TrEMBL record:
This is Transcriptional regulator, PadR family. Residues 32-103 form the Transcription regulator PadR N-terminal domain. Transmembrane segments: none annotated. It holds the Pfam family PadR. Residues 119-186 form the Transcription regulator PadR C-terminal domain. Keywords: Coiled coil. InterPro entries: Metal_resp_DNA-bind_regulator (IPR052509), Tscrpt_reg_PadR_C (IPR018309), Tscrpt_reg_PadR_N (IPR005149), WH-like_DNA-bd_sf (IPR036388), WH_DNA-bd_sf (IPR036390). Gene3D superfamilies: Winged helix-like DNA-binding domain superfamily/Winged helix DNA-binding domain. It comes from the Bacteria. Residues 145-172 form a coiled coil.
């Protein structure tokens, strides 16, 4: 993993087979790719999977789901086919391509750039590590910790140079949030990930 910090945002680069690939796709699209990692699914099965796995976190409407998959198919990340059913309309079944699997795995193994996205995006990544029985999650935890510590150092530097009391208060809040995530990653997330490796 590599990162560049511009203003208040990280631009992330996932490392895959010796190359850095910039992650520019919305997280929802990566999650949709992840729903196909265990095999082909039709739209209703994907909706059920999202509702069961993430409850309301990743709610995607039916029309939006098909629009996103149409774009992913145009980009060569998924393929679809119609499955005929007796006395019922045909179902459109989606499958991952090799490029789609690669794109998903790069995203999965790259830390989340913005602290505000950790609650949704990073937890989704932990779910996929468990659901797919993947063993490389400890590297993700380490990379995420490194990124958060860099973030904390930048906030600390801004805090030390800030004279306005309100701005200092805001920076204190941001630092405490980052510190809470660092503690949670060490105390809870890392044991969770290591347990996956031990049980697969």
């Amino acid at each position: 993993m590599n990162d560049r910090f511009i203003g208040n945002a990280f631009i992330l680069f996932g490392f895959f087979r010796g190359k850095y690939l910039m992650l520019t796709r919305p997280s929802t699209e990566y999650v949709l790719l992840g729903t196909l990692m265990s095999g082909p699914r039709h739209g209703y099965e994907i909706m059920q999977f999202l509702d069961t796995a993430f409850e309301s976190t990743w709610h995607v409407g039916t029309s939006q789901l098909y629009a996103l998959f149409k774009r992913l198919e145009m980009e060569g990340l998924v393929i679809s086919s119609l499955k005929e059913q007796e006395d019922r309309p045909a179902k459109r079944v989606f499958s991952l391509t090799k490029a789609g699997e690669k794109s998903f795995l790069v995203w999965l193994n790259c830390p989340t750039g913005n602290v505000r996205d950790l609650r949704v995006e990073f937890l989704a990544k932990l779910f996929f590590f468990k659901d797919l029985g993947l063993k490389e999650g400890d590297e993700l935890i380490t990379s995420q910790l490194q990124m958060l510590k860099k973030n904390k150092d930048r906030l600390r530097q801004r805090y030390e140079n800030e004279a306005d009391s309100y701005n200092r208060l805001v920076l204190e809040f941001k630092m405490s949030t980052v510190e809470a995530w660092i503690d949670w990653l060490d105390v809870s997330a890392r044991p969770f990930i290591l347990d996956i490796g031990d049980n697969h």
